[in-house]
Write a structure and sequence with these properties.
By secondary structure, the protein is an alpha/beta fold. The protein is built from 10 helices and 7 strands. Strands 4-3-2-1-5-6-7 form a 7-stranded mixed beta sheet, sandwiched between helices. The N terminus and C terminus are likely disordered.
Length: about 280
């Protein structure tokens, strides 16, 4: 994929390299940054990666029909309305329940398969181009997501990113205990993870960029010197515009985006119904 050349901060609105839109984009040249942080769901990929992961685990008999129906409802809600903290917490509890007692190597292998079967086709080319522009300038690019690290790391590696920070499930002797290490990387926890990584690597957060689609990630966006909204929800779009943050929208039209979300939700429901019938 061609990488757009680095350019200084524009003084007038310029076309977005991936969409051709005329939205202002006053980012600094990538080479001027210490690092860039990217959210996963809705930013780098369409939909919720955790539910793609759950779908594959369900196909392999990891959890019950009742739990699968709960995941289906949450997947529908995410596709139509976006993420909600309460739903993520519920998904976390179910996730811990179905991996408890399982071997880490087995679940990590499934994470690799999920990219090939579900996630790879849903990567947003526009956001990927933003990440590659940073990488081409020698800037580390880290994914920061609430998704399990067993899924986040394979996705980051396949996309050529520097690394990934995700929610970590505790394991002892290669077997999951059913408990978390720390908190899910959501909301303030994402900002704390970025601070910690920056401190370890000697990065100045005022010289870092962050990209997200959701107002839930405002703690992460506020902690860096160069925040940007990507495919933003309504709340984040308003917040970004009020503060003059760059807004990248790689969806063609809002109407098309809404139709696509609805169609995706129906597809998830149909797919999961098929799994239930086969089981």
């Amino acid at each position: 994929m061609a990488v757009p050349p680095a350019a200084g901060p524009p003084t007038t609105p310029r076309a977005d390299p991936a969409t051709g839109s005329g939205a202002p984009s006053p980012e600094p040249p990538p080479a001027a940054l210490d690092a860039a942080f990217f959210d996963l769901d809705g930013t780098l990929v369409r939909g919720a990666s955790m539910f793609y992961f759950a779908r594959e685990l369900a196909a392999r008999g990891f959890f019950s029909r009742a739990q699968l129906r709960t995941f289906t409802r949450r997947a529908l809600h995410f596709a139509l309305r976006g993420e909600h903290h309460g739903h993520l917490l519920e998904a976390r509890q179910l996730g811990l329940a179905f991996v408890a007692g399982r071997e880490v190597a087995e679940v990590r292998g499934i994470g690799e398969d999920v990219y090939d079967l579900h996630v790879g086709a849903k990567v947003r080319p526009g956001t990927r181009a933003l990440a590659e522009r940073h990488l081409a300038a020698g800037v580390p690019v880290w994914m920061v997501t609430a998704a399990p690290v067993e899924l986040a790391e394979p996705i980051a590696r396949r996309l050529g990113l520097t690394g990934a920070l995700g929610t970590v499930a505790e394991s002892v002797d290669g077997v999951y205990t059913g408990r978390l290490v720390g908190e899910p990387l959501h909301g303030p926890a994402k900002a704390a993870a970025a601070r910690s990584l920056a401190a370890q690597r000697g990065w100045d957060l005022s010289r870092c960029a962050a990209y997200s689609d959701s107002a839930n990630d405002l703690p992460l966006l506020r902690v860096v010197g160069h925040p940007a909204a990507v495919n933003p929800d309504a709340a984040l779009r308003r917040y970004a515009r009020d503060r003059g943050w760059p807004v990248h929208d790689f969806r063609n039209w809002r109407r098309t985006a809404r139709w696509t979300a609805g169609a995706g939700a129906v597809a998830v429901a149909v797919a999961v119904t098929g799994l239930l019938r086969r089981r």
